[in-house]
Amino acid sequence: MKNIAILFVLVGSLLTISCNQWEKELSLPPTNKPTSGRVVLVEDFTGASCVNCPAGTAVVDGLLEEFPDNLVVVAVHSNFLSTPAVSGEVKLSNPDAQAIENYLGGWTGKPEASINRYKFPNKDYIRLDKPDTWRLFLKSELDQKPIIELSINRSYDSISRNLQIELIATPKQNISENLHFHVMLTESGIVASQKDQQVGIISNYTFNHVLRKLITPVPGEKITGPFVAGTAINKIYSFTVPQDNILWQDNHLSIVAYVSADESLKYIYQAAETSVK
To answer: Where do the domains of the chain lie, and which CATH numbers do they carry?
Structure first.
């Protein structure tokens, strides 16, 4: 019995040493957060009557959770598969969403995403299908250092509902070509029904980042170059937020802005986002 007791003491000591050593050596894996300063625009082409779109939106939500400081999301409810899942519910499609779809060109269905409106090598269209590949394409854009910085200042009067938006773009290098400024409003927290491949219809589905209004033209507002590194470019835009019982809830609205190349390229250099209130 004495020998057994000694054995237990020795084993306990070894376990204590092992645990202490493990605690000292424990280190968290790298987060792989982008260090480039790039903020990428992802447009999620979706619709309330698209049965596969909840899965696509889940992928985008996961990317936003992974890269919260480097990703701006806009849910584009263009006409295709965007009739309300339940008749009489709120309609999320609008002419501006359809105009963006027309502007970006070819597509094969929904869900699809555009990432900085870049036509990736060996791809037929700007819009990408296969949501399980979106992270790979997004990561390639996040790894690119931005050639321009972009920030948003805003003031909002909740009584008049007048919104003033100032964009401040500062080139990080000399730019000889023209630029295009874009401003839009998105709305989150819209509750309605959504068709789904697995369950048929999801009641009380929450739609986020829904494109509500383009404040600038679809190709953007052209700003004529050249531009000098370090010299800021300022533009001011105004918009009166409509009143509505369901949509246009100002505490759920966000301002999305981005700077793109010439309209023949459509490529987005940098994006930014801030809340209206």
So the answer is: 40-146+182-215+245-275 (3.40.30.10)
Is the pLDDT at 4 greater than 70? The verdict is no
In whole numbers, what is the pLDDT of the chain averaged over residues?
Answer: 91
CA distance linking residue 100 with residue 116, whole number of Å: 13
Angle at 78 between CA 58 and CA 264, to 5 degrees: 100
Strands 268-275 and 210-214 turn out to be: unpaired
Average pLDDT over residues 109-124: 98
φ and ψ at 224, to 5 degrees? -75, 130
Instruction: Kindly write down the DSSP assignment for every residue of 100-142, as one continuous string.
Output: HHHHH-----SSEEEETT---TT-SSSSB--GGGHHHHHHHHH
The structure tokens listed for 55 are 């899965």
- State CA 94 to chain mean position distance: 19
- pLDDT value of residue 31: 52
Q: Are 50 and 160 in contact (CB under 8 A)?
A: no
- Mean predicted confidence (pLDDT) in 189-213: 98
Q: Quote the CA–CA distance of 127 and 108 in Å, as a whole number.
A: 8
Q: Alpha carbon of 146 to those of 131, 232, 257: distances in Å?
A: 25, 15, 15
| Neighbour-count burial for 66-87, b at 16+ CB within 10 Å, e otherwise | ebeebbbbbbbbbebbbbbbee
Question: Taking a C-beta distance cutoff of 8 angstroms, is the pair 156, 164 a contact?
Answer: yes
Residues near 223 by beta carbon (within 8 Å), at least 6 away in sequence = 178, 179, 180, 181, 233, 235
Q: Which residue has the tokens 């000591």?
A: 13
Q: Find the angle CA(81)-CA(77)-CA(243) to the nearest 5 degrees.
A: 125
